[in-house]
Amino acid sequence: MFDAVVCQFGVMFFPDKPKAFSEMRRVLRPGGVLIFNVWDRIEENEFAHNVAAALAALFPNDPPRFMARTPHGYHDLATITRDLEAGGFRSSPHISTVAARSRATSARIPAIAYCQGTPLRGEIEARDKSRLSEATDAAEEAIVRQFGPGPVDGKIQAHIITIER
């Protein structure tokens, strides 16, 4: 039995969240704490939102939706609370929403990070492997349009959830 279970930006990837919460609860001692965080909706995360919009314009018939669907797709607090209850947690979760800033020396850095350094890359390549560079350029241009050339500074927001067994 553990005093705490901690999961940083992982819960949104679990295919069966109530089952995962049940397993986390199972290994917690009575009074133990589960702490996890998830990204808020994509509209509250400026770089991710800009990248998603740029890719939707580039692939209008079949936009890559990985960012909105997965990292930013598990943000609804009522759903999270229901999933925790379905996983056997009986106390009310404590939820904090935290906004911060994400900074980079240029728009190119987050464009590459999102388009080439996440599973979003696979969705881009599934549409047209030859357009990965074009997609990265479009993402960079979208970020520059909002934040200007040079260093960029965008809002990011997440929820931190704590619940006791």
Automatic annotation (TrEMBL):
A GO molecular function for this record? S-adenosylmethionine-dependent methyltransferase activity
Pfam assignment, any one: Methyltransf_11
Q: Which SUPFAM superfamilies match?
A: S-adenosyl-L-methionine-dependent methyltransferases
GO BP annotation list: methylation
Organism superkingdom? Bacteria
Q: Which InterPro entries match?
A: Methyltransf_11, SAM-dependent_MTases_sf
User: Has keyword Nucleotide-binding?
Assistant: no
Q: Which UniProt keywords apply?
A: Methyltransferase, Transferase
According to the entry, every stretch annotated as the Methyltransferase type domain falls at: 2-36
Q: What is this protein called?
A: UbiE/COQ5 methyltransferase family protein
- Organism from which the protein derives: Collimonas fungivorans
